[in-house]
Design brief:
4 domains; alpha+beta; Udp-n-acetylmuramoylalanyl-d-glutamate--2,6- Diaminopimelate Ligase, Chain: A, domain 1; six-stranded antiparallel β-sheet; Arc Repressor Mutant, subunit A; CBS_dom_sf; flat
Length: 438
């Protein structure tokens, strides 16, 4: 049985994109209190179903899929460029496909401008009008205004006209940066992207008996099930180990493992993997803010996701990528093991001109990761790392990093790392890692 809260969320999801909603209307349509309606609308906003736009209200928006996360809404553009909306507020929830810089003649500009575009242009009122008529939004640079007739047309067609005090080059750079940041986020796989949803999850209730476990075990072939109450709140986990020695008429709440470890949908898959390895568990319940079950993830789901991440093409360079993209493996003539070499660039240094602690940590971790992969040991999750410098490492020095396995098992490893420059040891590290089988 669905709760009023869930009914409101389902109702909001069924609304067409662009539909306006309010606490009062929701409360009246669903026959709930305004407090319940308000809380549900706030959760819908967190989930990306609706957006609250100043002087427009709360409206249903297109839910962003993971593969389209690099698309920005016009409302987000307003925030990025510190803009002022001159007209077309009703279209701020729409997403833009691309932006066009209007530094050309009108005829040429219109060939590149169409529906879903954002035209960035200065004080050219005729261009503003043609762009709106072509289905594009307009971003006016230099803090200029436009004609009232253009604003009226923008309101009718629900295509935003935004004014910003920044110049065209600065605006284009700011929007590019925002899209680039979104591309990096696209690579971060979250639990909500891989979970088995609630409707496909076999659950037991606290009032069920052990007999029910045997029935589900026979039907599904699984031995681990989440235990929920009548409000879908997670109460425990039941496994084959829990039911051993108990009568089949015993209720589940008497034998289940209570207060299980849970995660929410926004948890990264890497964090979930770390929990599962450290705690030695096979499945994790995924819950919402009210501790209601949303689905389950298994260790197999997590491992598949981690492998998928590594096969993805590069779609946005992070600081770690910039630091390690010149990292190369070299033949080691000293027989000390694998050696990884890189040059210390100015970006890797602190204000004193020596390599920063964070960059050195990244280099050491990357060297160990690559070394263990070459030894068929899988990927690593760092449990503990101790680093100390023996000599200053300055910019333009060539750094050679040599990991050496001190102890390794199926799940754990202890690694000693030495960093050399011109044949002299300049730094050392000791790492304790968890191993994830690939």
């Amino acid at each position: 049985m669905t709760t009023k809260h869930e009914q409101i969320l389902q109702y909001i999801q069924s609304l067409p994109v662009g539909e306006k909603i309010s606490v009062r209307l929701i409360a009246k349509d669903i026959n709930v209190s305004e407090g319940t309606a308000y809380r549900a609308i706030k959760e819908a906003e967190n989930k990306g179903y609706v957006s609250t736009i100043e002087r427009v209200g709360t409206i249903r928006i297109e839910t962003k899929k993971k593969e389209n996360i690099e698309k920005l809404t016009y409302s987000e553009v307003v925030n990025i460029v510190d803009g002022q909306v001159l007209g077309g507020r009703g279209g701020l929830h729409k997403t833009l496909n691309k932006f066009v810089i209007g530094a050309m003649k009108l005829e040429a500009m219109m060939r590149y401008t169409g529906p879903g575009n954002l035209l960035i242009v200065g004080n050219r009122t005729n261009v503003h009008r043609y762009a709106i008529e072509a289905g594009a939004a307009v971003l006016i640079t230099g803090g200029f205004d436009t004609d009232d007739s253009v604003k009226k047309l923008a309101d009718e067609l629900e295509l935003p006209i935004i004014s910003t005090s920044y110049d065209t080059f600065t605006v284009a750079t700011m929007i590019n940066r925002a899209i680039y940041d979104q591309l990096i986020k696209k690579k971060i796989v979250q639990v909500e992207d891989i979970l088995t949803p609630l409707e496909n999850t076999v659950c037991l209730n606290t009032t069920d008996t052990v007999e029910k476990w045997f029935q589900y075990n026979t039907e599904s072939g699984h031995g681990r099930f989440p235990v929920i109450d009548q409000n879908l709140k997670i109460q425990g986990i039941i496994t084959s180990k829990d039911i051993m020695g108990y009568d089949r008429h015993t209720t589940i709440d008497k034998v289940m493992t209570k207060n299980p470890i849970t995660v929410n949908g926004k948890t990264s898959v890497a964090s979930a993997a770390q929990m599962m390895v450290w705690e030695g568990i096979e499945v994790l319940p995924v819950v919402d803010a009210q501790n209601r079950l949303e689905g389950m993830i298994s260790r197999q789901d997590v491992l598949k996701a981690l492998q998928m991440i590594q096969r993805q093409p590069q779609i946005g360079e992070k600081i770690d990528d910039i630091v390690t993209n010149q990292f190369v493996s070299v033949d080691d003539e000293s027989n000390r093991g694998s050696t990884f070499r890189c040059e210390v660039t100015p970006q890797m240094t602190n204000h004193l001109g020596t390599i920063s602690y964070g960059v050195f940590t990244t280099l050491v971790t990357e060297a160990v990761n690559r070394y263990l992969r070459s030894q068929k040991k899988g990927d690593i999750l760092v449990e503990n790392i101790t680093i100390y410098f023996i000599k200053p490492v300055q910019m333009e020095m060539i750094l050679e990093i040599q990991p050496k396995i001190l102890e390794v098992g199926r799940k754990f490893g202890k690694i000693d790392v030495e960093a050399y420059s011109n044949g002299t040891v300049v730094g050392k590290a000791m790492m304790m890692v968890q191993l994830i089988e690939r």
